[in-house]
Amino acid sequence: MTQCPALLNDSEPLIQVTMSFASEYLAQLAAFSEQCPLPRVRALHLPPVQPVQGHAGEFCAVELTDGSLGLSYVRLGDTLAQLRQGSAAFELAGADALALAQRFVSDKGPGRVIGFATANAISRCLYDRAGFRPDDSSDSIGQMNAKAGESIGMIGLFRPILGRVLKSGARLTVVELRADLVGEHEGYRVTMDASELANCSKVISTSTLLLNDTLDDMLAQCRNAHWFAMVGPSAGCLPDALFARGVTLLGGNWIKDRQGFVAALTSGAPHSEFTSKYALTANGYPGWRELIRRAANSQRT
């Protein structure tokens, strides 16, 4: 049994977590499939080895036959190379979506990445059938509202948003896995010691924690944080199990032009014009059971 901090309120007791995030997430999607037939898998869309610009080539997408798309990060180790070399072996076209999503729980490496992307595609399918659209957010730092003198933690170096955090006058500590980034920098410091997050009152993280199974461990290091945002294009999962662990905000990308997005992703071009950023908090989210109820009702009408 893992203990994770209740970040929303320091006076609350620790939350007891008995299942992994992946297992909880898949159980919720399985409940959806029991009420509503799921579309099958149409295709896996991969970025090129060399993107056209910046960070455009960091994500893959699994597409379902209803057009739902789910994203996952592909730049962990040689994951992208393995996907490009062996995508045919995964037998994706026409596959059972829930069975493929289960690989997020059971597999490692590229299989886990595909499973996560498929699970996120099913989540988008659920949102659409339930008529649920998360609120837009133009805030790239997860509504952090950083203030001068605050100690801010960042899990994974977000270079594009460094300026916004540092401009506030906050003290920034970045936890990274790359030793070559460690050290003092202008306005912030990078460390590989996750225990330093205990000194931070607010933390922002990439959704890569969900792929490398470090979510619960990293949250445990953030025991003094009252605000924890997880953001990124692959944060398209159902947020219930994250909120239960103390995540206060989930920020993802809502794909509003499927064809344009797929064309941009597969060519390595920027795809921001085909998406909008959204933010989910526990207060503005109906919960996975209510979403399934709405989706099931929409089928009957």
Give me some keywords for this one.
301 residues; alpha/beta; Enolase-like, domain 1; 10 helices; 13 strands; globular
Remind me, CATH topology of the largest domain? Enolase-like, domain 1
Major sheet size, sense and barrel closure: 8 strands, mixed
Q: What Rg, in angstroms, do the CA atoms define?
A: 19 Å
**Overall morphology:** globular
Number of strands: 13
State the end-to-end distance.
43 Å
Total DSSP helices: 10
What's the CATH architecture name of the largest domain?
A: 2-Layer Sandwich
Beta-strand share of residues: 15-25%
Amount of helix: 25-40%
Order of helices and strands: EEHEEEHHHHEHEEEEHEHEHEH
Structurally, the number of domains stands at 2
Q: Return residue spans where pLDDT drops below 50 for at least 5 consecutive residues.
A: 1-16
Element layout with pairings:
Layout: E1 2-4, E2 15-17, H1 21-35, E3 41-45, E4 59-64, E5 69-73, H2 79-86, H3 97-101, H4 103-106, H5 109-130, E6 151-155, H6 159-167, E7 171-175, E8 183-185, E9 188-191, E10 202-206, H7 215-221, E11 227-231, H8 240-245, E12 249-255, H9 258-267, E13 275-280, H10 288-300
Parallel strand pairs: 6-7, 6-10, 7-9, 10-11, 11-12
Antiparallel strand pairs: 1-2, 3-4, 4-5, 8-9, 12-13
Helix pairs in contact: 1-5, 1-10, 5-10
